[in-house]
Amino acid sequence: MSPEPARQTSPEPARQASSEPAQPASPEPARQAPGPEAEAVIRVRDLAVAFGGRTIFSGVSFDVRRGEVFVILGGSGCGKSSLLKAMIGLFPPAAGTVEILGQPVLSEDDKARQALLRRLGVMWQSGALFGSMTLAENVELPIERHTRLPPRARGEVARAKLGVVGLGDAAGRLPAEISGGMAKRAGIARAMALDPPVLFLDEPSAGLDPITSAGLDELIRGIARDLGTTFVVVTHELQSILAIGDRCIMLDKEAKGMIAEGDPRVLRDTSEHPVVRAFFRREPMAERG
Ligand SMILES: Nc1ncnc2c1ncn2[C@@H]1O[C@H](COP(=O)(O)OP(=O)(O)OP(=O)(O)O)[C@@H](O)[C@H]1O
């Protein structure tokens, strides 16, 4: 796989003059998001998902641009995880198409489909590590399955990936010997094992305390910035959305579709949609329906 072009980064914010009062650290990205001119690495068009005749959502269309952190958000049960699964072709949608890296995810050509899947890294919310294997062995698994690298080289790649997520010293530990935050990091390292240009993360902060969650957000932003990886992240953690998201879409259970798209900070500050406002401002919603 050819290396991805480096992410365009914004210059560091100017240092404050010493006479200015210290500002609290902003949770918001201090970097330039890829603009509309950036290539779309994912194109979702008119997507609908239904289970047993029940439509979860329909008419969902958006692009994910190269190098951005794209967030799928919305309340419980609106179909975020189902959208993620449909995007990577785990099941056929009721309608619509998804193209990733210029290829349809549900290509009839099985070889092409497998080759595309190999280029996508996925970390599931429930994506537990294998308990009997060390972290390094867990990360080695996809390398062993999909490459012909000899064991020693596999081990080196696995340790390098663990180094990227700050677990270089924990390569020999078992999952039971590490914290929940470390396990998420190890899951990201495993998802990165084959250097995917696109990483999908399903609820990465679920079950983490706010400080550990903020550390994970930093990691995601760092990988996007330094390696140019494109992220698609499902989450309903407001802090995370504002910290990592370049752009987002919001799904809604009642609308059975998308109710907002854009920069999450702009949506927070300007959206007139009652559900979007309630979500970003943590306002209670009146009963709907
Ligand atoms: N394989 C399936 N078969 C039948 N129904 C399903 C299946 N997967 C999901 N659903 C239903 O689809 C709806 C959306 O589920 P989904 O998990 O995609 O929502 P979500 O927004 O990710 O929710 P949460 O934030 O609670 O994880 C739910 O009503 C769920 O029960």
TrEMBL record:
Pfam families: ABC_tran
SUPFAM superfamilies attached to this UniProt entry: P-loop containing nucleoside triphosphate hydrolases
UniProt KW keywords: ATP-binding, Nucleotide-binding, Transport
Residue ranges with Low complexity bias: 13-34
Keyword Transport listed: yes
Domain ABC transporter: 42-278
Molecular functions per Gene Ontology: ATP binding; ATP hydrolysis activity
Parts of the chain that traverse the membrane: none
Residue ranges of the region described as Disordered: 1-36
Species this protein is from: Roseomonas acroporae
Name of this chain's protein: ATP-binding cassette domain-containing protein
